[in-house]
């Protein structure tokens, strides 16, 4: 079950959250349902089974069966691979879990950001509290939580890459506890490339200033600073993820014409929890409507405390420059009627090789194309596809401990080529 840990809060915290936001019993229901997920033009239906604070998602992907179980009380997710009789254990609020589990994504977002009840609506015959999750005034997700189930029966994300989940054919009744047990003949494997010395090694951190151009990413420790030159005519996103068990503090400073833009980024951004995230946009139409102060040609990201993964990325008309720091999947929607060029450059912070996988999905096609790559630091590889290929969804995964990469995606036709290179 795809990608991107700290633990989920204790059950008591979950009960408090449920009572405060949803006014429902705390995970007491037992039921099954069809979980229908829609991402762009791709639809996937899985089977959801719920028993109190435990739930399981059974699915089929690329002809392979899989199962995910979640224990909300312990904050543990297990991904089962029946064909290999193996399973992976991870924190439920890890990036890999959140990127593939809409229930967990909604619950985690409700905890990390501002969650407000906006009335009651009926979804699928169930009376639901409508919960809107936002950050800095921007809507992130909306969930409809059934009062007598204690679970969201519908979740919608807001943004360019919309993700909708809705439960259909909900049936109340007993669910077997065996569904959540680990079979005796299953072997636990490490999610970070079992046996990899690199994966097990402590994460290095930059503790001095460096300069670069977009896209750029680094793990930053105290004193670590990225000064990144950006194209002033394209939208910029600065993203932070806390990698410290304790609190991290980071300054994000915008510059224009060699001078720091006043009033923005004066105070450090504080990330209090492991894997807490934060982002800010510049040069985008929405931010420029608020203030011309958000127009920049350079961004400085400086860590003052803790350990963070910082990324500076850009996108414009037909182009994207992205950075994958390892341990998660970069999802990108493409325009099927345009040619596509994907360029990946090895950019491991420690100078090692970067290994990853690309999954290409085509409009109206069930089978996805899988590609693999291993790149030395600074080495580049490009794949080009004509518009007739109809590619509409790209997933680029770099495992934890498998390096870092720069990604350039071009649909302007500037990079020519009718096949793969």
Characterization of this structure:
- This protein has 421 residues and is mainly beta.
- The chain has 3 domains: 11-189, outer membrane lipoprotein receptor (LolB), chain A (Clam), CATH 2.50.20; 204-316, Sandwich (Jelly Rolls); 317-421, Jelly Rolls (Sandwich), CATH 2.60.120.
- Helices cover 9% and strands 50% of the residues.
- The protein is built from 5 helices and 30 strands.
- It has helices at 11-21, 95-98, 102-112, 197-200, 285-290, and strands spanning 30-39, 42-51, 54-61, 64-71, 76-81, 86-91, 114-123, 126-135, 138-146, 152-157, 163-172, 187-189, 209-213, 216-220, 225-229, 235-242, 248-256, 259-260, 269-271, 277-282, 298-305, 308-316, 319-324, 328-333, 340-346, 354-362, 369-375, 380-385, 391-398, 405-410.
- The strands form 4 sheets. It has a 12-stranded mixed sheet with strand order 7-8-9-10-11-1-2-3-4-5-6-12, with helices on one face.
- The radius of gyration is 22 Å and the shape is globular.
- The two termini are 29 Å apart.
On the 0-100 scale, what is the average pLDDT?
83
Determine the fraction of residues in helical runs and give it as a percent range: under 10%
Uncertain parts? 1-25, 191-202
CATH class of the largest domain: Mainly Beta
Q: What's the architecture of the largest domain in CATH terms?
A: Clam
CATH topology of the largest domain: outer membrane lipoprotein receptor (LolB), chain A
CATH superfamily of the largest domain: Lipoprotein localisation LolA/LolB/LppX
The best one-word shape is: globular
């Amino acid at each position: 079950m795809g990608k991107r840990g700290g633990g989920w809060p204790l059950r008591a915290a979950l009960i408090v959250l449920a009572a405060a936001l949803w006014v429902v019993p705390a995970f007491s229901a037992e039921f099954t349902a069809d979980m229908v997920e829609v991402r762009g033009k791709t639809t996937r239906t899985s089977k959801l089974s719920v028993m109190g604070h435990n739930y399981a998602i059974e699915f089929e992907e690329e002809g392979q069966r899989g199962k995910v179980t979640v224990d909300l009380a312990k904050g543990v997710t297990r991904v089962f691979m029946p064909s290999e009789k193996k399973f992976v254990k991870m924190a439920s609020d890890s990036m890999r879990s959140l990127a593939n589990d809409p229930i967990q994504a909604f619950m985690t977002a409700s905890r990390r950001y501002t969650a407000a009840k906006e009335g009651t609506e009926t979804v699928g015959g169930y009376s639901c509290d409508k919960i809107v999750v936002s950050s800095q005034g921007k809507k992130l997700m909306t969930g409809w939580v059934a009062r007598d189930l204690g679970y969201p029966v519908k979740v919608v994300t807001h943004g360019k890459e919309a993700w909708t989940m809705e439960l259909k054919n909900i049936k109340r009744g007993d669910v077997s506890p065996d569904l959540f047990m680990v079979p005796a003949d299953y072997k636990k494997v490490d999610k970070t490339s079992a046996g990899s010395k690199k994966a097990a090694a402590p994460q290095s951190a930059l503790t001095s200033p460096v300069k670069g151009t977009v896209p750029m990413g680094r793990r930053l420790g105290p004193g670590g600073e990225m000064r990144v030159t950006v194209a002033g005519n394209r939208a910029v996103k600065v993203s932070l993820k806390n990698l410290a068990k304790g609190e991290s503090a980071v300054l994000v400073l915008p510059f224009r014409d060699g001078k720091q833009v006043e009033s923005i980024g004066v105070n450090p951004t504080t990330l209090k929890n492991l894997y807490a995230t934060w982002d800010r946009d510049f040069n985008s139409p929405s931010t420029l409507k608020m203030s011309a102060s958000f127009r920049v040609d350079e961004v400085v990201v400086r860590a003052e405390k803790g350990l963070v993964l910082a990324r500076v990325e850009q996108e414009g008309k037909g182009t994207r420059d992205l950075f994958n720091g390892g341990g998660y999947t970069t999802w990108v929607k493409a325009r099927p009627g345009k040619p596509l060029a994907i360029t990946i450059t090895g950019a491991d912070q420690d100078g090692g090789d970067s290994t990853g996988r690309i999954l290409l999905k085509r409009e109206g096609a069930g089978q996805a194309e899988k590609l693999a790559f291993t790149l030395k630091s600074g080495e580049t590889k490009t794949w080009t596809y004509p518009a007739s290929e109809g590619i509409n969804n790209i997933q680029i995964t770099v495992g934890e401990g498998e390096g870092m990469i720069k990604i350039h995606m071009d649909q302007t036709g500037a990079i020519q080529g009718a096949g793969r290179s």
